[in-house]
Amino acid sequence: MPRSILGLAALAAVALVPSSLVAQGFMVNEHGTCVMARGGVGTPKPCGDGSAVFYNPAGIAGSSGGMLSLGATGIYAYGSFQDDYTGESTDLKNSIVPVPHAYFTYGLTPKLSAGFGFFVPYGLGTKWPTTFQGYDTDFEGRFNGYDNDLRSMYFQPTVAYKINDLVSVGAGFDFVLGSVLLNQMVDISEQEAQPGVTFGDLGIPFHTQAASAKIEASNATGFGGNFGILVTPGRGVSIGARYMTRVKLDYAGDATFEPAPTGIALPPGNPFGVPAGTPLDAVLVGGGIFEDVLVAQGGNAQITMPDQFSLGVAVSPSDVFTVMAEWQWVHWALFDTLTLDFENLPDKTIVENYGNTNGFRFGFEWAAAQKVMVRGGYLYHEGAAPPETVTPLLPEGSRNEFTAGMGYQFSSRFAADFAYQYIAQDKRRGRVQEPLAGNPPTVDLNSGLYTFNAHLFGATLRVLF
Amino acid sequence: MVRRTPTIRFGLALLLALPLVAACNNEAIMPPVAVDPMFVRYASLGNSLTAGLQSGGMNDSTQLEAYPVLLAQAMETDFVVPLLRSPGCPGPYINIFAQTRVGGAGAPPCALRIGPAPTRINQLGIPGAEIIEFFNYFDPGVIPSSTDAYKTFLLGGLTPVQWARKIRPTFVTIAAGSNDLLGAGLDENNPGDPDLVTPPAEFAASYDALLDSLDAIGSIEGGVLIGVQPIVFASLVPSVTYFSPGAAWQQFEVVFDGMTAPLNALDVNAACATAYVPFPIGGGALALAQARVDSVLGGLLAPQDLVTVEITCADDQAITAAEMQNLVAAAAQYNLHIQQAAADRGWAYFDPAPVFNNLAPVAGAFRPFPAFLPSDPQHETQPFGFAVSRDGIHWNALMHEAIAAALIDAINSYYETDLEMP
After folding, report:
1. Are strands B171-175 and B222-226 parallel, antiparallel or unpaired?
2. Are A395 and A405 in contact (CB under 8 A)?
3. Contact call for B153 and A319, based on CB within 8 A
4. Tag placement on chain A: N or C end, fewer CB within 10 Å?
């Protein structure tokens, strides 16, 4: 029975598409509704829903019997880019995205426990329209990326051991399955019409789309580990620490190109020597751009999911009330460049220059009644992206987040947790264009303001057996 | 009640202290700035004068001397010009009589744009653009012209209105109409051909359509509608050199005839007394005559074989008095409509004619006849006068400054602003 449930859980988890943008960088931290409700604090006092497999593997030590929990966090992210010059805004088109999690734990002995977890600690999803609202021109950011998705699904078998009443330790082995999708428009003004002469040199406007490029890779695999320790130095106090290693993922995929209308009908006397009214698209097709340059081809990329460390303390002034705090450090400096290595096209290096981040989380938990647990919290995350790399791909920044939730024990075997989280990201200046080839990005390219907020709804059901 | 231990107190203190690190740090949008909010996004729609074509060519130097650039500087607003590389597209004339240009004979006909392509364009002047081409490049009634190439080189195939939609201007200047007349004035087969003049009613309809398109953008707070510029019509500016009186050309024929003898007797044509001859026709005839004279002098041609090249001021050579009257009448009707359109929208109307009229009496501003002879000290540098560029039609930097100054006065007067000439 447990084995079949676990199998179904894994299938369900893969079927759901984790795609989110709710913490610094492209990190996701909502992998358990209980922890989510108390401000994301999970390291010093893990919840009893098995999410300790992620938040602190030591937390499953000492458990008895088996426990299975299944849940998901629904993320409704919304935001916009407002152009400095025109003042016009374009809204994100993200839909509600479910991010699943599943845990299974089992107490092998009073001191030794085993568990398995599925979670998605790194992922992003950004969908932008290809047109501005309000007037009939296009969203400039579509050349950076208009439909982007990155997922890193972690499958983690875990063991934990309770050394004594003071100290427990735990460790997990992470098998990581990654995929990435990038959709962006190709700017013909930067392409060569003839050797040494770009279409832009002939007057074709900046950001004239000629094709949509789809870069897709899946089934990248990597390995890592997740380690935790839990210390209870005194009654009502627990301190936890946890370190999850970096995971390097090598992506191999394909780049495909579809013609996109340029919207330009060439006027009389054009330098291409074609009759007035000829679409520029026809010139491009006739010139063989989709046969010689923008042809389907393979490509490779490498992205490292950064290592992260967290340290926290929980204090229970009474038997029914606990307050807790946690600090998290994420090694985002590893995400400095993203190089796309194409078979035919020149390699493309996207400079990100991310910086390491700190997150500070605070939460409380109150046993309001025998079967009811009330939770709340607040967290603050620094942004990982420097001012020069805030783009439509990931318009990221510092965030203040507020959480609330409750747990209810339906019976001795069944319980459920519910949570709500609001994310208010600082408004951040950013850009909608890439630097010229070979040039680093600078803040001079920033041309507008990104806003980002999100509502998150979490639910987890747990079963003891 | 549980008694608090030192560990608990430490934990609580940590909990209380940590929130202090949290903060909001919202950044802000950086909207464009100008001396007045009305000018934060300025778009200049117009023709070759607007674009900065001088001396039959255009490059980044001439473009930056154009009046809209000066006006934008006065507004202290960001104004992006689609700059052309030196020597130009093509390079401006060094000597129009010798047909030498900046960049020399080896220069390409168009040196293309300075890259990279700008993210937006505010300078929306298109040389040769008739009124309908401000929003439609494919009207069958528009006669193909060598200036058509600028529609791609400058605006990438988008019309000025399409660009305006992109930049959502708060203020516009529109200079339209000159090319609806100039096409007739410059026609090689029949200068002044009435059939090539855009009928005033048609002009008015297109002009209204242009303004309706701009109104639909919904961002424009003010503008200046510029009247047809008197670059063509000798009756407006009697001494504009490009269309010199036929009599002046005939007088010059005598000069050439006098260089060799004997020649056929000069056939004085009464039509030249009232007609205006475009420079290319008159100049071409005289250049041909000069070449033949040189051939005789060089022994390449026998004197008896010399054929007089005569300017007859016939209809196919000159703008006749009737044609000129038609052009002037059309210009007047254009301007009436432009003025009314400005009034209807509460925008300013600017008539450039007074600028010319003020300069016309100044000696050397507009020569009555081109400095055709190489012996003339202005032959190369100011062949048409010090206020006209070396092609005889387009303004030079001095004239652009004069126009910009007058425009600034007009804007300040109408909108009660304090723009100052840069």
Report:
1. parallel
2. no
3. no
4. N
Written as one string, the DSSP assignment of B288-328 is HHHHHHHHHHTTSS-GGG---------TTTSB-HHHHHHHH
Average pLDDT score over chain A: 90
Chain-chain contact of B119 with A140 (C-beta, under 8 angstroms): yes
Contact (CB<8Å) A270/B5: no
- Residue A443 is given by DSSP the state G
Confidence check: pLDDT of A16 > 90: no
pLDDT tens digits, residue range B204-252? 999 999 999 999 999 999 999 999 976 444 444 444 568 888 888 877 7
The pTM assigned to this predicted structure is: 0.89
Q: Cβ atoms within 10 A of the Cβ of B13, count? A: 10
**Chain A residues whose beta carbon lies within 8 Å of the beta carbon of residue B24:** 400, 424, 426
A357-367 vs A237-244, strand pairing mode? unpaired
**C-alpha to C-alpha distance for B257 and B261, rounded to whole angstroms:** 7
Q: How many CA atoms lie within 13 A of B250 on its CB side?
A: 21
Cβ within 8 Å, pair A198-B115: yes
B130 touches B197 (CB < 8 A)? no
Burial of residue A404 (number of CB atoms within 10 Å: 0-12, 13-18, 19+): middle
Residue A255, both tokens: 């780049």
The tokens for B342 are 């400005």
Q: What are phi and psi of A254, to 5 degrees?
A: -130, 150
Whether the per-residue pLDDT at A158 is higher than 90: the answer is yes
Q: Do A203 and B156 touch (CB under 8 A)?
A: yes
Q: Please indicate if any CB of chain A lies within 8 Å of the CB of B131.
A: no
Question: pLDDT digit string (tens) for A344-375?
Answer: 888 888 899 999 999 999 999 999 999 999 99
**Would you say residue A14 has pLDDT above 50?**
no
Q: How far apart are CA A252 and CA A239, in angstroms?
A: 42
Quick one: what percent of chain A has pLDDT higher than 90? 74
pLDDT value, residue B283: 84
Residue B290 pLDDT class (50, 70, 90 cuts): confident
Quick check: B137 and A318 CB within 8 A? no
According to the model, what pLDDT value does residue B17 have? 52
Distance from CA of B170 to the nearest CA of A (A): 10
Instruction: Provide the ipTM.
Output: 0.88
Bridge partners (DSSP) of residue A180 are A150, A217
Residue A43: band (very low, low, confident or very high) from pLDDT cuts 50, 70, 90: very high
What is the structure's pLDDT at B234?
Answer: 45
| Nearest CA among A206, A203, A267 for reference residue B51 | A203
State the burial class of residue B287 (Cβ atoms within 10 Å of its Cβ: 0-12, 13-18, 19+): middle
Q: Is B374 exposed, middle or buried (0-12, 13-18, 19+ CB in 10 A)?
A: exposed
pLDDT for A53-64, tens place per residue?
999 999 999 988
Q: Are B80 and B123 in contact (CB under 8 A)?
A: yes
Q: Which of A43, A206, A358 to mutate to test the interface with B (most CBs of B within 10 A)?
A: A206
Entry field: residues in chain A: 465
Residue contact B152–A271, C-beta within 8 A: yes
Q: How far apart are CA A269 and CA A283, in angstroms?
A: 14
> Reduced to 3 states, what is the DSSP secondary structure of residue A321?
strand
Chain A hits for B121, CB-CB cut-off 8 Å, are 205
Q: How far is CA B36 from CA A24, A384, B40, B373, in A?
A: 40, 38, 7, 50
Handedness of CA B76, B80, B81, B83 (dihedral sign): positive
* C-alpha distance from B132 to closest chain A C-alpha (Å): 13
Residues of A in contact with B8 (CB under 8 A): 234, 236-237, 315, 317
Whole-angstrom distance, CA of residue B85 vs CA of residue B368: 34
Q: How many CB pairs under 8 A join A and B?
A: 182
